[in-house]
Amino acid sequence: MPTARETLLEAAHRAVGTQPWAAVRMVDVATAAGVSRQTLYNEFGTKEGLGAALVHRLVDGFVEGAARAAAEGGRGGSDPAGSCAAAAAWMLRTARDEPIVRAALTGCWGSRMPTPPAPAPVPVSAPAPVPVSAPSASPFPAAAPSPVGAAGSGVRSAVAVRPVEPGPLAATLCERMMDGLPRNGSSGRLGLACETGVRLALSFVVAPPGADRSEEEAVRQIRDVVRALLSQHR
Known about the structure:
Structural class: mainly alpha
Mean pLDDT: 79
Low-confidence stretches: 132-136, 142-161
Strand content: under 5%
Radius of gyration: 20 Å
Helix content: 55-70%
Number of domains: 2
Number of helices: 9
């Protein structure tokens, strides 16, 4: 059975699919999810927190889906080029069909979706922040907690909505894809070929193929490039 948080995120996703994010009301999201408005605020703190969680959920799902596609298309690790091509096909299809994922990958946010707020200015005298947590597999950088979740309030701190940084995202995708490939003396060239395939796929998300070129052709190009890179080092 889905949790209240999952049900609320599904309701928010449906809402932003039919109206601009600015028009989405917290009370309507709570009603659609079948929970109280207080439960919604307890989970996400603010509307910005809800939007941030929705973006994180969709982009994390995008990464997981690309990793699954790579594992299924790589024939048990024996076909790295096929693995990259399968992941690329997933990435292009998902970015085309899911506007929030596409916006997160390109940084082009429209009025129909949560818009990343401008970062708060840091006082000149403020000391540099010290990392306190281990690195995460998520492509999102850690965000400072919002004042909304005061201790003992029962309200979760909101997380600032921010676009995915292409570098960390590409690294995360490569790492997940490499998990399904054999680790041996060729890991270095496999990593290079995998990274090239991922970055090519992301470039097609930013600048989709034109009307005279299909996504399937773009995927074939990525597969051929990866295959050529691997053959050069044999």
